[in-house]
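Section 5.1 Outputs to date
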Amino acid sequence: MTGIIDSHFHIWRQADLPWLLGPMQPRIFGPYEPIRRDYPVAEYLADCRPCGVTQAVYVQANWAPARHLDEVAFVSQASDDSGFPIAIVAYADMLAEDVRPQLDALAQNPRVRGVRMQLHWHENPLYRFASGADLCRNPLLQANIGRLAGYGFSFDLQVFAPQMAGAAELAAACPEVTFVLQHAGMLEDLSTDGVAQWRDGMAALAARPNIVSKLSGLGTFLRRNDPAQIAFVVTDTLALFGAERCLFGSNFPIEKLWTSYPELIGAHRAAVPEGAVDAVFSQTARRVYRLAQP
């Protein structure tokens, strides 16, 4: 296997992130006191480089929306200072009347490869983020996401299983945009019915050729590194999407709440068949996020 590409990580200064300041807030990954601090690029590299990571994709970490360009500048500077190649998935408000001025500004930075605006909504308020359950069907949001194609930007798509039918409609409405499903669809209900709903939703998403799936964040709801659960989700996702449409992401430092980078890589590596390793750990991310050979 060539060098690993981590397709989903964060770095930050605590002072820049409203949710890391003040009182603890409900988050889908549970209590997060150990990461209510700076997580600089040097610490991330100390975590990932011994495991063979040679490139990475930073995903927006919910700075104040008005500071989304400051976030891009911060990550770009970290990449420059460290000499480590980092691509960026930035924030843009896809419910703006016309998102193109935001995209024009983002496009000035050559590291920006895509956009994420989190759309996940859940009946459980602890898991709720978006303003509504059905934003994927919102005509304004669909129009703005469709505009990403003109910039060569992908869209990192974050939804729960009950939202997947609408997400499939969104992908169908924007056929020129590549959608990157976050965390393999965020399976949180492990009941028989819950798993069946997730599988049905994942099949609907996999039927859209412009959707790929990140194998990331698989400890979010268990709040532990569980090799058996990772193997289950990875196996099902690979069967639906194929290795050429799956990519590994660490979700660090969130996953650092309960595991180390070597343990996380080990669990994912054990779950991926030998013939799929190059695609999952490097080739898909290189293609989707347009990464240069190191």
